[in-house]
Design goal:
Elements: H1 2-38, H2 43-51, H3 55-70, H4 83-92, H5 94-120, H6 125-152
Helix pairs in contact: 1-2, 1-3, 1-4, 1-5, 2-5, 2-6, 3-5, 3-6, 5-6
Length: 157
């Protein structure tokens, strides 16, 4: 049963953070598409802003890989993890799963606003990136929390 809990934790980390990133990239992409249709010369500046919310999905994937490795499942063999260790790995996934979901959505909204700002003031793109990156900071904190918990746990097989 512990192995299943660990796998659920890994799946939640990758899935929820990925959903947040997908939503964020989509929200920023809608804004970028509208601006690019009128100002195609801004595409490269807008593309960078649109791509920023994609990182939460990457963080969720990193967390999932670490959880699977800590459970001893990375080599493809079936390893039995104790119920307690499996639950601990499931709970270790919660910070990046939840914060990745929420911050991906909000980072996308912030990126969309930065894209609109850049459409009016192309030199303001760097300011928009800084505003968008500030939301990212919380996803980084969540990833660090997940990794610390996962790596500090004694895993019983």
């Amino acid at each position: 049963m512990g192995t299943i809990y660990a796998i659920i934790g890994a799946a939640l980390a990758a899935t929820l953070a990925g959903i947040g990133s997908s939503y964020g990239v989509q929200a920023a992409g809608k804004a970028a598409a509208g601006v690019t249709s009128e100002k195609p010369e801004l595409f490269s500046k807008l593309f960078v802003l649109q791509a920023l919310p994609a990182t939460q999905g990457m963080y969720g994937l990193v967390a999932a890989i670490v959880i699977v490795m800590r459970a001893g499942l990375f080599d493809g063999t079936i390893t039995t993890v104790s119920k307690e260790s499996g639950l601990a790995l499931l709970f270790a996934a919660i910070p990046i799963a939840v914060v990745g979901l929420i911050s991906g959505i909000y980072q996308g909204r912030t990126a969309a606003a930065a894209i609109l700002m850049t459409s009016k003031q192309p030199d303001a793109q760097t300011k928009g990136m800084q505003m968008t990156a500030l939301v990212e900071l919380y996803a980084i904190f969540a990833l660090v929390a997940t990794l610390l918990i996962a790596f500090m746990l004694p895993i019983a097989h």
